[in-house]
Each structure stands twice: as structure tokens, then as C-alpha cells.
Amino acid sequence: MNKSFKIYQHLCVKQKPITQREAIDLYKAYRLASVIHRLREEGNNIQTIMTREKGTTYATYLYKPEVHQEH
């Protein structure tokens, strides 16, 4: 199982947010932004929330399932 698939499962199946630090600690994935880019290209709706804390800014990625409205 590759890192991209593990991150996909983390975000889209388990529906848990992930940061770069968590990606490194959990999956040894050092290029999370690249994985997120590929997942978005595959049609996954992944949102980015930027957080500034103690002078440091970091991204948290969240999967948002598409909501289909009926007419």
C-alpha cells in the first residue's frame, strides 16, 4: 500500500483531517501537498485550512464529500 493510498484512506474513507506533521509521523510522507494535488486531480474535494499559530503557518487538509441537491 503506497503513501498516497494511505493518505486517501485517512482523508476520504476515515474522513479525518491531516497536516504535514501527521503525514510524516503516520505515513513517512514528506510531500503531502503533492499527494493532495494528485487526489484533487482525481476528483476528490479536498479543502485547505491555513492556520497561524505562534508565528508559524501550516495547512490542514480536509475531505468534503460532494453534496448532491435534488430538484
List the helices and strands and how they pair.
Blueprint: H1 3-13, E1 18-19, H2 20-27, H3 32-41, E2 46-53, E3 56-63
Antiparallel strand pairs: 1-3, 2-3
3D architecture notes:
There is one protein chain. With 71 residues, the chain is of the alpha+beta class. It contains 3 helices and 3 strands. Strands 1-3-2 form a 3-stranded antiparallel sheet. β2 and β3 form a beta hairpin. The protein is globular. The model has no long low-confidence stretch (mean pLDDT 92).
Short description:
With 71 residues, the protein is α+β, with helices and mostly antiparallel strands.
Q: Ends: how far apart? A: 40 Å
Number of H- or I-type helical stretches: 3
Order of the strands making up the biggest sheet: 1-3-2
Task: State the helicity in percent bands.
Answer: 40-55%
Give the biggest beta sheet: 3 strands, antiparallel
Strand content: 25-35%
Low-confidence stretches: none
Structural class: alpha+beta
Structural key phrases:
about 70 residues; alpha+beta; three-stranded antiparallel sheet; 3 helices
